[in-house]
Amino acid sequence: MKRKPKIAFFSLTSCEGCQFVLIDLGEKFFNLLKKVKLIDFSLIEEIPFPKGKVKIDVSFVEGLPIKKEEVRLLKKIRKESKILVAIGNCAALGGIPEMKNYQGKERTIRYIYKRLDGILNPEIKEIDNFVKVDFVISGCPINGEEFLKFAKDLIKGKIPKISQKPICSECPHQGKKTCFLKKREPCLGPITLRGCGAVCPKNSQLCYGCRGILKGINPKGFLETLKKFKKPEEIEDNLEIFGIKDNIEKLKAL
What we know:
Order of helices and strands: EHHEEHEHHHEHHHHH
Number of strands: 5
CATH superfamily of the largest domain: NADH:ubiquinone oxidoreductase-like, 20kDa subunit
Largest sheet: 5 strands, parallel
Strand content: 5-15%
Structural class: alpha/beta
């Protein structure tokens, strides 16, 4: 009998929204699980991470390592996995939690806790700051159908190729008067990786870049264009929402 690939889903500090997307796929997701051996997925069953060496073909990691125990778990996952996949904006880009870095973590924590004794307040870091990440499935949350497409290759040991096209290529407003940029609104669609079906623009919302920026682009010109009709601080606010600000800064520095 052919050995089934072993896969696991791990949740670090997160809302677990990306895993709920998979559950919402219903039969499609469970048909995928029939083809694999599931090692861990807390939303389906409380399966403890086996002790000792556990060779996993593909591990999908959602969220951020905030606690020391999560850092240790993440390193164990990496050690035991042939392929490690970051799923969702938090794992890949720092997500909404990374706003704390931009706005001052010492000030931000005081909005939540009156007493700080014993409260950890680390800088928010994407998981690739701690371990090697082999592939990223972007979004906040991820797109379920896109996950299934990538998962078919991943469980075969193949790293999928991602088409480097912008959200604008999926947007129904492209080239029309209803385009946010034509209305002088700071939409990040032109520099953001496609794959979500432009769900936010379709619902009359700006794209805030939750899927990350396209590879090989220089955002300087685009940002200069935005500054012609929006204040720099408003543009900065939009870049901070899903954690792409530091990625933009790195590219601008090249």
